[in-house]
Amino acid sequence: MSDSVAADPDEHLTDGWEPDAPETDTVVRQCVLAHADWATIAAEAKGRPWRRTDRWAGAYAGDRGAFTNMVILLRPPRGEDDLAEVLGEVADLVPAPAPYLLLSPFPTPDLTSHGLARVGHPPLMLRPAGPGPAQDADVREVTDADTLAVAERLLVEAYPMPEAEPLTAGDVLSPALLGGPMRFWLGYLDDEPVAVSAAVCTRGLSLVTYVAALPAARGRGVGGGVTWAATLADPEGPAILVASDDGRPVYERLGYLALERWTAWLRPGA
Question: Residue 125: what pLDDT?
Answer without folding.
Answer: 98
